[in-house]
Amino acid sequence: MTALSALLRKTPGEALREYFDRPEIGLPTDFDWTVSEEHLPGPLKGAIEDMSRRQHDRILNDAERVTGLADEPGQAALYSVAEDPAYLDGLANPHARALWMFINAQDHFRHAEEVRFTEDQRRGRMWAGYMTEPGHDVQRDGAARHAFVSAIKEFSGAAHAHVDIFDRVRTTHEGDERDLVQVTIYREGRPDDLLRFDENGALVRQAYRPVFEAAVTYEPANGGIEVIANDKLTRVEMVKAAVTHLLGIEFKENRLPLRCYDLSVLLTPYDFPVDPEDGIEGVEVRELRLMPIDDSSRRVTLENMARAGGTIWSMAEEMFEDRTPLRDGFVITRAKLAVRLAKRPGGDRRRTLTLAITWPHGCNLKDRTATEQLIGEKYLRRWGILVDDLQLFED
């Protein structure tokens, strides 16, 4: 289902009318809104197809942005910046909440998009964390902003930069809310070009300068400061500029460790203990990729399909006997776990969540649903797979 189809089918008619009735959208004034909600998507699609290409593209882009905040992580981002979360609670569904904020609180909607970007990239390759002094106010006056932006321009060579500074909350996996201040930075990149079609349909090249997004968050309660940016040097410089010009204190490079995954527990059969209330019916290891300790240029992959029966360990013993790579001399560099989840209330089938984990820092927990957060934060650590990184790995 495309973003536009999802928006038209899942958004209440009253909310759709609030969006399409705006003069800048260009929907014909004689559009028949008396059509039932069930049958409304068809006429709306027809009306959109009759619009100019510019209007049509605008609606498609708006639909992408709104539906991008209609899933669980997007809703968490909306609530994290909402001035009145109780009002959002009163709206019909996630699409209605996202569309309402898109129309009525555009700055907050953009901040929610920035929160989504930050949380999606958190603890990944673009992330770094530091500890600094707690209890400071993030300065937002013109002088502090100017000094911060000037520092960004100086180290990056960007001619233009824009900064958003706003309050938000982050909900922990235990359900607690922590107050944060987020600083989102947009900076201009080096010249580039792209192919496009001009008004006559001719293929031409158009010069442009890309815009790069980055973010810094500060948690006053504990002094934690985190940064999301493309490369290590940028991350260091952005945190340094934020600490110096927005917090007004001396920057000390006190790094937090990266999240690290240790797959050695999977070299031998493992039972994966879980709590019954979490609705996990079983865990299977479907794939292991191994590397000889003394030869990093070679890999061995073991795969036990869902219908194969047995376990990946019994399969390895059966096929390789005493030459199985699960014995001494190999390390596991990647694993795929199939987590069987109980049916949702009212659901008609069971679900399987596949976790792909790569040593030392990789895991595919990017969609960040509640279940994925539970697995990632609670069980991977309990199973001894998610561990504290005692040695900082450089980029």
Folded structure, characterized:
With 395 residues, the protein is an alpha+beta fold. Helices cover 34% and strands 26% of the residues. Strand 10 (280-292) and strand 11 form a beta hairpin. The longest helix is centred in the N-terminal third of the chain and has 16 residues, at 106-121. It is globular and about 75 Å long. The two termini are 38 Å apart. Mean pLDDT is 90; it is low at 390-395.
Summarize the structure.
It contains 12 helices and 15 strands.
Please tell me the overall pLDDT. Answer: 90
Order of adjacent strands in the largest pleated sheet:
2-3-6-7-1-8
Distance between the termini: 38 Å
Q: Element order, helices and strands?
A: HHHHHHHHEHEEEEEEHEEEEHEEEHE
- Tell me about the largest β-sheet: 6 strands, antiparallel
Contiguous helical run count: 12
Structural class: alpha+beta
Q: Label the overall shape.
A: globular
Which percent bin holds the helix content? 25-40%
Low-confidence stretches: 390-395
Layout: helices, strands, pairs:
Layout (H helix, E strand, L loop, with lengths): L2 H8 L2 H8 L20 H9 L3 H15 L4 H10 L3 H5 L4 H11 L1 H16 L5 E5 L10 H15 L4 E11 L5 E12 L3 E6 L5 E6 L2 E9 L4 E5 L3 H16 L7 E2 L2 E3 L18 E13 L7 E4 L8 H9 L9 E12 L9 E8 L3 E2 L6 H13 L3 E3 L7
Antiparallel strand pairs: 1-7, 1-8, 2-3, 3-6, 4-5, 6-7, 9-15, 10-11, 10-12, 12-13, 13-14
Helix pairs in contact: 1-4, 2-7, 5-7, 5-8, 7-8, 9-10
Characteristics:
15 strands; 12 helices; disordered C terminus; single chain; 34% helix; 395 residues; 6-stranded antiparallel sheet; 5-stranded antiparallel sheet; alpha+beta
